[in-house]
Amino acid sequence: MLLPFTEKPLEGFESLYNKKIGNEGEEVALYYLEKKSFKIIEKNYSVKVGEIDIIASKNNVLHFIEVKTRVNDHFGAPYNAITHSKIKKISRAARCFLLSYSHNFSAYQFDVISLVKDKSYKVHFIENAFDVSDFYSL
Known about the structure:
Strand 2 and strand 3 form a beta hairpin. With 138 residues, the chain is of the alpha+beta class. The chain has a five-stranded mixed beta sheet with strand order 1-2-3-4-5. The protein has one domain: Trna Endonuclease, Chain: A, domain 1. The protein is globular and about 40 Å long. The relative contact order is 0.18. The protein has two helices and five strands, in the order H-E-E-E-H-E-E.
């Protein structure tokens, strides 16, 4: 049993609490994207080298989207939690997806949806949030 979002979770339940918040945030992100006319291609795409929360397309552009959710921004915006290591894993997973997916898109990009839950969700959609060319060319 989890406590409401406004209270600290019971000891030992932190990971379940965080997972619940993350899953809820991903559902909010999907709803947001659909309202913005994105076509959802994959949710929680996972391969050995990494994971991508949402893969979507719009106007023949493929979007690899990382979703970060927090119940407050006391420790900074949710998107600040995306590390260099996480970007590397996302880029590797994107490469696997591109090698296995047959549709040709005119471009691809890496975006972030940063969510803060207060009484309702505040959505911050950051397009082209990071460049993976430092790692290798996809």
